[in-house]
Design brief:
The complex is a heterodimer of chains A (216) and B (101). Chain A is built from 11 helices and no strands. Chain A has a domain at 3-153. Chain A is an all-alpha fold and 216 residues long. Chain A is globular and about 50 Å long. In chain A, helix 7 (107-113) runs parallel beside helix 9 (161-173). Chain B has 101 residues and is mainly alpha-helical. The chains are: A mainly alpha (216), B mainly alpha (101). Chains A and B meet through helix 1, helix 2, helix 3, helix 4 and helix 5 of A and helix 1, helix 2, strand 2, helix 3 and helix 4 of B.
């Protein structure tokens, strides 16, 4: 086990605790949307992507049907296209191995592994995902069995966990003053698009703000 | 049955989306210009996720108690408090405001 994999494991722990809370609220909402506890848990185990799971479960629960639910979930994941292209040069091995390593890209691991110069520490990336996966699945188990007694998780303020989680990752990126400008631009683009595009698209489209990198 | 199909389909699309970049770009070093753009992607994507998850619900923009919770969290993160403390405080602020409303 490499030193940076171990560093990744440690760095992933605080995010796995927060992920546990987030997954718990997913478990509660999924059961309320008509999922069985087993379905909620299996979904977390095989998808492991919070925003996509929330989006897909909400649409199924509202009777939106198979295709819209999978489409919405996939769009929420569209940012992983950009993240995957970004980490690609830092991965090693043949296409199969790379595809597998690419599965370990989740937002906190990706941000933690970012070395700030366009390259990524792949061992740290993979290490950081391990505790988060455990937290995500066990949190869903807890939520899925609490589901019927918990009531509306929003009442307990659990919906705030998701943005705060990302805000803590963002804070580390804003030390460079030039990043602040593009972060603000990305936020404005995303908010401007919310009323006009399906959920998930605004975040991917905000990525175009990074193109100002070409100008310097 | 629809639920199981949705779970299976979403697992497949998620895996394909995550594999796309690593397989397509492979081990090629990206041109220096592309690297400059990639270096700016983390702040941009994370900022977009923060504002959309706080201020939107589906295709609707809205400001509610969670915005206050996130604002308090922002100050605490700036003061470098531990993440779990920050999250629990933000949850408490949001829940209290909703209870009062």
């Amino acid at each position: 086990m490499s030193e940076s994999f171990r560093r990744g494991l440690r760095a992933g722990v605080p995010f796995s605790l927060v992920g546990f809370l987030l997954a718990m609220s997913f478990g509660v909402l999924a059961v309320q949307a008509g999922f069985s506890a087993l379905q909620a848990i299996v979904m977390s185990a095989v998808v492991h992507a919070g925003s996509a799971q929330f989006a897909a479960a909400a649409i199924l629960g509202a009777g939106g049907g198979l295709v819209p639910s999978v489409l919405a979930g996939s769009l929420m994941n569209a940012r992983f296209l950009a993240m995957g292209i970004a980490v690609a040069p830092s991965l090693r091995g043949g296409p199969g191995r790379r595809a597998l390593q690419g599965q370990t890209v989740v937002d906190p691991s990706w941000a933690l592994a970012n070395q700030g110069d366009g390259s990524f520490d792949r061992h740290l990336l993979m290490g950081a995902t391990v505790p988060q996966y455990v937290g995500w699945v066990t949190g869903t188990v807890a939520g899925a069995f609490l589901g019927d007694v918990a009531g509306d998780p929003d009442r307990f303020g659990l919906d705030v966990v998701f943005p705060v989680f990302f805000l803590s990752l963002l804070a580390a990126e804003l030390r460079d003053p030039r990043s602040r400008g593009v972060a603000l631009a990305g936020a404005m683009i995303a908010l401007a698009l919310v009323p006009f595009t399906p959920p998930g698209v605004p975040v991917l489209a905000a990525g175009t703000a990074a193109l100002v990198g070409l100008a310097r | 049955m629809t639920t199981w199909l949705a779970i299976g389909a979403l697992a497949v699309t998620t895996a394909l989306i995550k594999a796309f970049g690593p397989v397509l770009v492979g081990g090629r070093a990206l041109p220096p210009n592309a690297t400059k753009v990639i270096a700016l992607l983390p702040p941009v994507l994370l900022a977009a996720l923060v504002v959309t998850s706080t201020l939107s619900e589906g295709q609707r923009l809205h400001v509610d108690a969670s915005a206050a919770g996130v604002a308090v969290a922002g100050v605490m993160i700036w003061r470098r408090l531990p993440l779990l403390v920050v999250v629990l405080t933000a949850v408490a602020v949001t829940a209290s405001l909703r209870a009062l409303a």
